[in-house]
Structures are given as structure tokens and as C-alpha cells.
Design goal:
The protein contains three helices and no strands. It has about 80 residues and is mainly alpha-helical. The mean pLDDT is about 80.
Length: about 80
């Protein structure tokens, strides 16, 4: 169990991460998502879609709002 997380106390310092780190992490994410392993895993997972309250078949958390935004974008 990792208990080294910072607590929300007033006496702790907030450390700002450099913007280059964010760019680096996005680049890593994109390369990992485009890898052959990720593509193969996606194809395997696509055959085994389980619908539930947190994973609806339509893919939207709130279907009426998603439809409203889609219609608005099409205008």
C-alpha cells in the first residue's frame, strides 16, 4: 500500500509541473495507443462488449445531451 501521497493540508507546497512534461506524456500516450499491441487489444475487446449502467451500448453518459450536441454541431 502506497501511503506517500500528499495530503490536502494547508502547510504543503504545490508543485507545478513544467508544460514540457505534459507534451511529453501526450506524445507517449499517442504512441502507445497507435501501437500494434493496442490495436490488437482493441479488436479483441470489440467482440466482447458488455452493456451495463456504466457502459451503455450507445456510448454516451447522457444520451439526450449527446444527441443535442451532435445536432448543434451539424447546424
Amino acid at each position: 500500500m502506497d501511503l506517500s501521497f500528499t495530503r490536502f493540508e494547508a502547510d504543503t507546497r504545490v508543485t507545478a509541473l513544467p508544460p514540457d512534461l505534459a507534451v511529453l506524456m501526450v506524445g507517449i500516450f499517442v504512441r502507445q495507443a497507435a501501437s500494434e499491441t493496442a490495436m490488437a487489444q482493441t479488436k479483441l475487446a470489440a467482440d466482447h462488449i458488455v452493456e451495463g449502467i456504466f457502459a451503455p451500448a450507445h456510448g454516451a453518459f447522457n444520451l439526450p445531451v449527446a444527441q443535442m450536441f451532435t445536432a448543434w454541431k451539424a447546424e
